[in-house]
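Run log // design_07
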């Protein structure tokens, strides 16, 4: 058996975890770290959040924690077997080992067990099905560690069975592929077959759950390969992507954007031909208002709003920003520059501070312009002059300009 002694593992032993471990030990309940945290630790990554698994039932845990005066946080996990305890300012989410009794492709009815192998069997991918004892012992029933070292993504047991338990696992397969696999195209044919045969099941999964996975795929590696695959395997239509997605543009933009930390929507918009595609995505996935507006902005401006020829390539973007009356236009322009692959201009635009127009109505009144309407017209004319000067003219220059006008 392998025993992990990595510093990332040692660092988990906070006062809170030590107290939790002691309680379980006293009662002879087994407690292990489960799933994603084990995968992260074995990859030398500090896990963001840690799930624990135990042989104790929810009732036994509640009794044990209550007797020890530990605060329990009520968050509806109990019917799935999860208890959340709070010790030393830290939350511990601990789930009883379980077997899926009935699954409908969306949720499962579970029964508790003390059999670690059976619990591992109902998890999605081999790299997510391992447990780690608090002494560092690895419990790995499906060669997850081997797969992790070889950067292979595989379902636990038969792919088709795992997918039919929860169709969202199709997208989880893609997400972990983009996170762990070394190169595109390294799939087992039988897995791809199972995905294709079960793609339709995604139609029954809620848009919100799909969007969470899809966003992570869009920001991971091999995104071009994975999205092309979604079309080849007939998944796209069930998750809100346009039937005739523009895959050439997607390939181009996903390459442009590689090191620019785009928003998921920026990458995705390259598939879209027009604003209807954004609306349809929103209907299926219920994206946020901000995401929808970004998609519509990119579809509308990606062709016309491009860098200026000549000495001031940023000018078109600056002018657009200065004329805009909407909120967060600058962040939308940053995303547009990423989409266009304009790394240098993006940096310059991010460093540019929006200048403020130096003349006010008050200045014009002092000069004897009295009617509101005239002031409005004059200000607009001066703004145009100011813009022509590249926002360089100061108050004096503008006001002397007004005398000419």
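design_07 sequence
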């Amino acid at each position: 058996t392998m025993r992990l002694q990595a510093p990332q593992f040692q660092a988990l032993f906070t006062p809170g975890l030590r107290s939790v471990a002691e309680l379980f030990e006293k009662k002879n309940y087994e407690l292990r770290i489960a799933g994603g945290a084990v995968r992260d630790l074995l990859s030398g990554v500090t896990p963001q959040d840690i799930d624990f698994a135990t042989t104790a039932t929810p009732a036994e845990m509640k009794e044990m924690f209550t007797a020890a005066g530990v605060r329990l946080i009520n968050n509806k996990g109990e019917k799935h077997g999860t208890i959340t305890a709070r010790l030393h300012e830290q939350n511990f989410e601990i789930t009883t080992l379980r077997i899926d009794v009935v699954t409908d492709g969306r949720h499962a009815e579970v029964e508790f067990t003390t059999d670690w192998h059976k619990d591992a069997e109902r998890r999605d991918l081999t790299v997510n099905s391992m447990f780690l004892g608090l002494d560092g012992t690895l419990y790995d029933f499906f060669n997850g560690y081997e797969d992790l070292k070889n950067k292979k993504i595989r379902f636990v047991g038969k792919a088709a069975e795992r997918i039919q338990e929860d169709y969202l696992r199709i997208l989880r397969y893609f997400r972990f592929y983009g996170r762990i696999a070394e190169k595109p195209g390294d799939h087992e044919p039988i897995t791809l077959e199972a995905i294709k045969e079960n793609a339709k099941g995604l139609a029954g999964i809620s848009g919100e759950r799909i969007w969470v996975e899809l966003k992570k795929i869009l920001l991971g590696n091999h995104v071009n390969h994975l999205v092309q695959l979604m079309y080849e395997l007939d998944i796209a239509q069930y998750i809100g992507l346009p039937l005739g997605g523009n895959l050439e543009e997607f390939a181009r933009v996903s390459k442009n954007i590689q090191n620019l930390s785009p928003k998921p929507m920026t990458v995705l918009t390259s598939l879209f031909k027009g604003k209807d595609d954004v609306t349809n995505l929103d209907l299926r996935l219920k994206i946020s208002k901000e995401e929808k507006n970004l998609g519509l902005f990119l579809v509308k401006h990606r062709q016309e709003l491009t860098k200026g020829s000549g000495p001031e390539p940023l000018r078109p973007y600056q002018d657009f920003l200065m004329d805009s009356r909407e909120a967060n236009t600058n962040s939308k322009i940053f995303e547009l520059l990423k989409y266009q692959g304009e790394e240098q201009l993006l940096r310059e635009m991010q460093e540019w501070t929006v200048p403020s127009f130096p003349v006010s109505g008050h200045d014009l009144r002092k000069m004897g312009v009295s009617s509101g309407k005239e002031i409005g017209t004059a200000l607009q004319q001066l703004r145009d002059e100011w813009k022509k000067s590249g926002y360089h003219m100061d108050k004096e220059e503008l006001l002397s300009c007004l005398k000419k006008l």
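Residues 1-153 form a domain with the Beta Polymerase; domain 2 fold (CATH 3.30.460.10).
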